[in-house]
Amino acid sequence: MAFSQEQYDELVMNLVVEGGNARSLAMEAMQEAKKGNFDRADELMKECDEALLAAHNTQTDMIQAEIRGDHIPVMLLMVHAQDHLMDAMVVKDLAAEIIELYRSRG
To answer: Which residues bind Mg(2+) (predicted)?
Structure first.
């Protein structure tokens, strides 16, 4: 395995943390848009994108290791991390649409 157990755990936790951060930032961005604070909403969405990019980079590292033949075990924590990340991506996409709705009606 290309990653030690400690490194694997750190990568998985990074997915959970960055996914959670991204989701929270998207939710906060919608709240700011609801108040008419579109500049702040846009800043929060950029931060959301950065969190998702960090998670994506972690996934890419793990996928590249798998392609090299370094088997990465799929544990329940990894499934949870991927679920957390996908949830964040959906919330981000919906937030972008909702923010634009608020913006067009403001």
So the answer is: 83
39 is known to lie in a ligand binding site = no
- Reported as a single tens digit per residue, the pLDDT across 77-87 is 999 999 999 99
What are the catalytic residues?
80
Nearest to 57 by CA among 90, 15, 20: 15
Residues 6+ apart with CB under 8 A from 58: 11, 14, 15, 18
Closest alpha carbon to 11 in 56, 50, 49:
56
CATH number of the 5-105 domain: 1.20.58.80
